[in-house]
Amino acid sequence: MIITQSRDWERIEADLDEIGASRVFIMGCGQCATVASTGGEKEVLEAKAKLEASGRTVTGWTIGEVTCHSGGTGLDTRKRSGDIEAAEAVLVLACGAGVQTVADAIAKPVFPGLESVFLGNVVRHGVFEERCQMCGECVLDKTAGICPVTTCPKGLLNGPCGGMWDGKCEVVVDRECTHVLIQRRLVEQGRHAQEVLSPKDYSKKLKPGSVNLREKKGGSR
55 CB contacts (<8 Å, ≥6 apart)? Predict the structure, then answer.
């Protein structure tokens, strides 16, 4: 899931002030931002209270089921078209993909209320860890399901580095070295480290990414 954090409120106010927006519509997200406690109903209502405390009018709010889903967001915005039309700006409490989806769906100025920080695993309720950078060239088959690109602070594919001491990382000193963890898991599984991994081919992570399943299936675009 996409992990988000609340944006500095002064920056949000500055964005609204820049266009002279006194009437605002708020849109949250029922998926990642709700789980991260940054864009669910509670957080939307908190943003509503802050906006009203600053003298602004909130024309309405909604929680998109999956805000980054173009079809669903388009439907949500059409259902609330009157409230959105009455607003001078839309504040989106979702990841950057959700903000862009809302911006594509309406003609009003759209502003982010959150910062997208990483693609994370839910370790337990309220605890998230970055485990994948979506590099486009996965090595998890070679590294016992532990990503060195992400979980090693230096992003080293082959290690440990010279700074590892007593199995601990020299950058994040209270955690075990990623490559020590990889080697231990390989041994526990009766496996052995194979060939040295080649340098990352960054051409496989071209931006912006795009996947068209319809085209692959021979359907319409």
Answer: 22
Query: Which one-letter amino acid corresponds to residue 122?
Result: V
* Peptide bond connecting 148 to the previous residue in cis, omega within 30 degrees of 0: no
Residue range 5-59, pLDDT digits in tens: 999 999 999 999 999 999 999 999 999 999 999 999 999 999 999 999 999 999 9
pTM of the model: 0.82
Residue with tokens 């939307």, as numbered in its chain:
44
**Which of 57, 54, 38, 41 has the alpha carbon at shortest distance from 113?**
38
Contact residues for 6 (Cβ-Cβ < 8 A; gap 6+): 38, 43, 113, 114, 115
What local confidence, expressed as pLDDT, does residue 130 receive? Answer: 86
Which pLDDT value is given to residue 37?
94
> Which pair of tokens denotes residue 184?
């231990």
Residue with tokens 């003298």: 55
Q: Are residues 118 and 147 in contact, defined by beta-carbon separation less than 8 angstroms?
A: no
Which domains are assigned to the chain? 2-118 (3.40.50.11860), 135-190 (no CATH)
8 A C-beta contact, residue 84 and residue 21 = no
